[in-house]
Amino acid sequence: MKIAGASIRRFLDKPDKAVRAVLLYGPNESFVHEAAQTLAAWALGKSDDPYAITKMGDDEIKKDSAKLADALAAQSLLGGPTIVWARINGKGGDEAILDALGAIEAGAPSGYLIVEAGDLGSTASLVKEFGAAKNAAVIAFYEETDAERAQYAKALAKDLKLAFDADAEEIFVGGLPPDRGLARQEIEKLALYAHNLGRPISIEDLEALMASEAESALDAASLAAAQGRAAQAVESLARIDALSGVSALRALLRRLHQLRDARALIDQGMSPTDAIAKLRPPVFWKERDAVAAQARLWTAKKLNAAYDVLWTAELRSKTAGAPQELIAADAYRGVAKLVGN
User: Fold this and answer.
1) Tens of pLDDT along 70-87?
2) What 8-state DSSP symbol labels residue 51?
3) What sign has the CA pseudo-torsion 24, 26, 29, 30?
4) What domains, with CATH codes, occur in the chain?
5) Cis (ω within 30 of 0) for the bond into 178?
6) For residues 55 and 111, what is the distance between their CA atoms, to the nearest angstrom?
7) CA dist 100 to 16, 69, 120, Å?
8) Rounded to two decimals, what is the model's pTM?
9) How far is 11 from 27, CA to CA, in rounded Å?
10) Cystine design at 138: which of 22, 108, 130, 270 (Cβ 3.0–4.6 Å)?
């Protein structure tokens, strides 16, 4: 059974009891892992057996292909559920997983199988077999849109009873990292800060709490590139430990989206300052003057050229073994050069 769209949330909120095996995959690793945790908690129920969940990785499955099937067939010491949670990368464990799926379809093991895979293609054997099985489900998780990320963040903030001053919530949401797991950590960190605060969260509170050193450096790098200061942009990137090239490219892409929206308002007759004030999510107050100045420099033609630079760089960075940091730095230089053209 293939589950997609709005049905994903319904399934995770109330899993189908007939489903005994679930394959979770896709480029959004945070979503995949979060879904696996949700299903494991549901399958575990009220059991307090510390050995009810057996976690297995690629190497373990490859070394002993029968171990996965044995774990699924094992009986819990306390008579509760048995859950096998396999985390795989590549095809090394496919045969053992498909054998286990076949046994589940035949009604043999009593256990519940969760497979947390990487970015599989839709034609992968696991995807096809789980999708065709009667007692299994397959769910793909892709990158969120900005609107979906904002909706998630606002809903979680509301659940945690966070209250914001005017514009503070939009600034908070707009500054969250794109990875859902990291975004959740930032929201929960803010909830701890706001506990017993006795007033709404202000922009000044956010300035003090939100940005890590790496995030601040990434903001500084994208701001410098958009101002045409290539050397400063690359220097800011170099200060970030374990830099993800794709994250750096997307940070600059978000900066260009901001300028594109401002440019559209300016072209309609609005002043740069008024255009920046209209943007949603709001521009961080310390950056408003700089972004207004940038908006005067960037034309639609230059923005289109910059998008081409970034999209080409992202494709290159996703090639196996690609030097992502160097590709990102080159892209930042390329975008910065467009300002003076």
Assistant:
1) 888 887 666 678 889 988
2) T
3) negative
4) 2-140 (3.40.50.300), 146-209 (1.10.8), 213-339 (1.20.272.10)
5) no
6) 13
7) 19, 6, 19
8) 0.52
9) 20
10) 130
